[in-house]
Amino acid sequence: MKIEEVKHTTKSQRIAAHSHVKGLGLDENGFALQMASGLVGQEQAREAAGIVLEMIRSKKMSGRAVLLAGPPGTGKTAIALALAQELGSKVPFCPMVGSEVYSTEIKKTEVLMENFRRAIGLRIKETKEVYEGEVTELTPAEIENSFGGYGKTISHVIIGLKTAKGSKQLKLDPTIYDGLQKEKVEVGDVIYIEANSGAVKRQGRSDIYATEFDLEAEEYVPLPKGDVHKKKEVVQDVTLHDLDVANAKPQGGQDVISMLGQFMKPKKTEITDKLRQEINKIVNKYIDQGIAELVPGVLFIDEVHMLDIECFTYLHRALESTIAPIVIFATNRGKCSIRGTEDLVAPHGIPLDLLDRLMIVRTMPYSKEEIQQIISLRAQTENIQIEEEALAKMSEIGVKTTLRYVTQLLTPASILAKTNGKEKISKEEVDETHSLFFDAKSSAKILAEQKDKYMK
Ligand SMILES: Nc1ncnc2c1ncn2[C@@H]1O[C@H](COP(=O)(O)OP(=O)(O)OP(=O)(O)O)[C@@H](O)[C@H]1O
Ligand SMILES: [Mg+2]
């Protein structure tokens, strides 16, 4: 099994609407603070999420599932993402939406399986022979391109590495130079190069440079102790899906065209069930030997009512397997029919036998004050200024419509305010945007009133 080449693949999260949410906002006893870490109210659901978090941390939770149930816009997705933030980057969190399983190319169960494996982490500890230190020089040596034509190629690269104990100059292969460039290594960074594979890892910037004025957040690390050339324990956090991808064979031959193609698009790989079983076997062996540790993460399936009976059956079985993540579902549906059945009605559109296994957390509608607090939080993160009176009017609208509708009014209202030559949104702009854009309820009402005017 290849481990060196494993790159951690994170799914990009849909966070734009929730970028003000930074955590669950609980105190040290697990009680929810009225307003903290970007979350407002909804105390019970947040505290319940806090307990789930504890269970995940103490590893007493794998193979279980939680359902967040409540009306639209009551913060289900926000609470799930807050939980992810609390878990930190070392515990995998894989968000998906129920409707993602429907594709003409991939089987539904395949999509579910892939996401399951994205949510199971593996922490691998290995002792490796490395060259480690702060980079003191980095000089690529160029030669004329041997194929003729323009440009030069790199023949080798000279790198200087320094530790607290000594320093060394190394002459490296050009392939390692690529690795150095990919990691964006510069003089003053602390890096290590694996002796066997030549893989380069940048650990951070040497803390001697900590006073440097930096625009980007940098991680500063101390100058490594010991020799440059040494044995080092390397810890890697990967998911089972990362291992699947790294070990799957790319499709197509090794001809020039397909080589070029690889630069254009990500490699098309085929992950088979057989490969997964192989990997599971090796992973289990590593766990037994104490080289690796399983880190069950979280699979978050939003809008779970979009799944059909086949998916539910599959999920039910997958939850029973020995390596399973914690699954968090969310839905805003009440009683509705389960997809893929002949009108079998069930609470939340989830089959009763699966529902029976879930821990259900409810989210409740917000009060006017809470809506006001959330709108003002959103305005802050979006850098929008709003007058007190306008804010009060917005929360009033929020009570009658939904929280999501009013938060969505913020941006158009701020554009209106700008065209009106104002710095802050006033009540006038709120009224105007509210009359320009309809919320779901009033739109439905208009449809009902004028149904003879529309095409059937
Ligand atoms: N308690 C809260 N504190 C701060 N912001 C919140 C809170 N609840 C919801 N929000 C924000 O309000 C918006 C709507 O909430 P969210 O998307 O989480 O609702 P939902 O319950 O998932 O709704 P749906 O059922 O429609 O998916 C989001 O921008 C979210 O970040
Ligand atoms: Mg949601």
Automatic annotation (TrEMBL):
Its main location: nucleus. Residues 62-365 form the AAA+ ATPase domain. It is an enzyme of class 3 (hydrolase). Keywords: ATP-binding, Helicase, Hydrolase, Nucleotide-binding, Nucleus, Transcription, Transcription regulation. This is RuvB-like helicase. Its EC number is 3.6.4.12. It is found in: Nucleus. One of its GO terms (molecular function) is hydrolase activity. Belongs to the RuvB family. It catalyses: ATP + H2O = ADP + phosphate + H(+). The gene is 20211929. One of its GO terms (biological process) is box C/D snoRNP assembly. It comes from the Eukaryota. It comes from Helobdella robusta. One of its GO terms (cellular component) is NuA4 histone acetyltransferase complex.
